[in-house]
Amino acid sequence: MALIVQKFGGTSVGDPERMRAVADHVARTVRRGNQVVVVISAMGKETDDLLRMATEVARVRPGREMDMLITAGERKATALLGMALHDRSVPAASFTGSQAGFITDTTHTNAKIVEVRPTRLRQALEAGQVPVVGGAQGVSTDGDVTFLGRGGSDTTAVAIAHALEADICELYTDVTGVFTTDPRVVADARRIDRISFDELLEMTANGCPKPAMRSVEYARTHGVDLHVRSAFTWEQGTLVTKEDSDMEQAIISAVTHDTEEAKITITGVEDRPGVAGKLFRALAEQQVNVDVIVQNTSAAGHTDISFTVPKEDAVRAGEVTSGLTDEMGASGAVVDDGIARVSVIGAGMKTHPGVAATVFETLAANEINIEMISTSAIRISCVVREAQIEHAVQCLHAAFRLDEGPAYVD
Ligand code: ASP
Ligand code: MG
Question: What are the backbone angles phi and psi of residue 262, rounded to the nearest 5°?
């Protein structure tokens, strides 16, 4: 008998028929002799609908009220799935995040988990029930309802799996697993059978939308094995585990892309100590999250600094940067939101030379100019024109033959 956490995303429970299909699957899992804890998202696009409704009702939307509103979506879904399980003679009990023991900080709309005390979930399991928990929610140390942010249900599921020492955390979604690249961009993208936490974390940090990055971080920190799979076909999906030394290392596991960033360039900056510190301190004080940073070697005592920021922060970052041009002795600042970033990710590149060369040659052969480069131990990213991003993804996916399955380090 295994203890399994099963998380269902919004499209998986999007309408009554889907809700019944999910209940059938949970019932099957229980009848096979497993203990199951369910974590559920709001049905379909309900979270978006609630957010929109709030903007239609009020201009001032206090975080406390927003969280009470948004978490109602998940709460509704828990009760409905609970009923559907009873209908199948599976004893079940619905729980809000607070009842499930999620204590968070007081940051409304994006709360952080402080502690999970799953006493009531344990009691329910001991009583032979399936607990059905509302995802992405908790209660703050001040006693208010909190929302863990978009995609927070994945984190709820991983946190429960860790707290209850579950055997596996299954994340059910509308695709059959994690793919070598976005199947909408490359038709012959393949499902990855198994991937390490580190690689999946790099993928989610560089444009792969699911699972939520925070949940992958949590899983990596606590060693919670994940199984990303489909709630439509129920087939085997992608296992996400710790990289073990016996595991073959794919040279490249995936190609991701991110179109949500803008590039800011400040030109003709005086080349002296303290200039970069001043700029990035000012950006940090405005809560701007800076990513790729490039500084050229200076020609005649002057240099250019470019960096990327999330598109939503671009205007603010541009203002901060422009405001500092005089002080930095710079000639100007430019915001460019026509960029995108392509990344190749694979644990095998740590020991396999030539990956960077292949990336750059491939882009060059396809007339794609590289504007910025950044790397980690298992990732190479290039900033290119946004209009060329799909082409960049396609040619890199082909260059590393990802459609034929991964090549491994010998
Ligand atoms: N329903 C919320 C959202 O769409 C939380 C979640 O499902 O993870 O972001
Ligand atoms: Mg979701």
Answer: -125, 160
